[in-house]
Amino acid sequence: MSKTLVIVESPAKAKSISKFLGRKYTVKASMGHVRDLPKSQFGVDVENDFEPKYITIRGKGEVLKELRGEAKKAKEILLATDPDREGEAIAWHLQTALKIDEEKECRIEFNEITKNAVKQSVQAPRCVDKDRVDAQQARRIVDRLVGYNLSPLLWRKVKKGLSAGRVQSVAVKLICDREEEIQEFVPEEYWSLEATLKVKGTELLTKLAKHKGKKVEIKNEQEMKQIIEDIKAEKYIVNELTKRERKKNPQPPFTTSTLQQDAYRKLNFTPKKTMRIAQQLYEGIELDKKEGTVGLITYIRTDSKRISSTAQEEATSYIKEKYGQDYVQEKERAYKDKGKKVQDAHEAIRPTYTEKTPDLMKQYLSRDQNRLYRLIWERFIASQMSSAVLINTALDIAAGEYTFRATGSTVKFQGFMKVYTDEDTKKKDVLLPEIDKGTEMDLVKLDPKQHFTQPPARFTEATLVKLLEELGIGRPSTYAPIIDTIQSRGYVVKEEKQLHPTELGGIVNELLKEYFINFLDVDFTASLEEGLDKVEEGELYWKEVVKDYYKPFAQLLDKAEEEIGKIEIEDEVSDEICEKCGKNLVIKMGRYGKFLACPGFPDCSNTKPLLEEVGVSCPECDGQVVIRRSKKGRVFYGCKNYPDCEYISWYQPIEKSCPKCSKRLVTKTTKKKGTRIFCPDSECHYEEEVTEGDFNEK
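The chain above was modelled as a monomer; its predicted structure follows.
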């Protein structure tokens, strides 16, 4: 009996939907794209109106042979690739390769791999959406035109092996621009004043807030001394106690970008890792024998916050049963995107089955899968719950013409916070004492503090994703590959979770800024995304978008070719001698930073790590501690005498020993806590404040 052939991208997805469709269907995987532009050729005929040349991807011949064989036996062919532009393009290439008529309704899509969704989709096939295909084709061709023209230019003018791309170059520019801001930043001094006051046996920490009803700004020590002089004889009288009830609404369910940001912040997952694990949860997890393979979350590449009415009803029913009617939102909450074009073809990221709680699924998931699933499940459930109610209090205390303030906050009703909270809402309740107006308080102490303004923070992977999304650069599916590419090319390195431009990244960025500044402009890059959206909507012809982009780009390319001379990156000569040929080793830049190499290459290919000493002796031998990098590029500290001495530490050691256990103390700097010194022994818990001399005293 002939069957219906359903083609998906991956074997995992094929396995998941096979059990929903039964014996009348054969489900096969294309293993992603089957056709693409050739790697070894330009692949775009610029003179012939940007006509692309597609070939079968190397290694996909056997896959296509099998699919063609199955297609001949099938009574019908359905293309069930992912519900986005990329998936539509794969479906179109499959349609072409299998010679399916263009007018044939052979395309199905589903936002979640569930029985109902899959069965409904096979009952409603449609034609391949050529507008959506053209939008993806335009993006692919523009990226090829930029990459295959700019990269050879860099090879000729700078060094072999470099690459440049339309979006990755903008990302590198953002990181370089931020580094420039940091280097040029001039700190400004300012002061703050805290007063510890006592009333009815209770001490209260307050901060100087106003002078004569206006906000206080203390710029230097002299101004601080004058304020202390002004208030030294004053009494501290309660001026006002205000209470305000405030509703806090839940955040919407995850989009691709917000999932990557939250997973980075809460789980320490890189965007690449987040997408890999989310793909596993979407395609299906093997549960028990009865259920088999089940897709646990909806499609993961989305910038929509929309939720289906069915999912909302399921969530509401669960919340009412689990937490009670008070936790059910009064009316359905609609999350909208402000001033941003959204591809609203599918929903936000949510669990496919509300009743499959993280606790129930834990036995079937790996630790990382469960942590990410819990994050998605809790965020979705919380998004459908009632608002939290907070009581914010403020206590103003007058000291002559000056006003000190204490603030507090308590949770009156948890609402959605019972399930999901942000980092800032995890703080404990702060209760202020009930004090009548006119009550006099006793001064315990004044604590003046000097501060300096801080430069803007370097990007983390999460904050870079956030900015790319805000600027409209790239699409949900591109954020993780962009960040991975700029690191693998050696333009950016990650140190203590922060992205730093390398010397090579800086050189390439300056070159592109000088000759291709318009194409690195964030507004110009975002305008291309808008053009692609119009292609998808059928408002623009895709070749017009490509032409409008390429014509000025080609002119700048010709100018750059003529004007840029060969840029010599002189290798810094080190004092270390090559043990193989006797030449002085030179310092080179690689993917994970600088390393030593023999200048005699290719006759001598000797390389070794560049060991940068941190000025601290090894706690286990007479060597020096140096900076090293793991295979993934993470910085750690080890002994210069390795492998004879195997001392390593993820945190920088200092020349001080722990007074409790005698182990060498280490230091770490974080955005929240600043620089702190602590004992690396997990059972010791010793910690101390940083003082002058901590980094050079034994």
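The CA atoms of residues 576 and 585 lie 6 Å apart.
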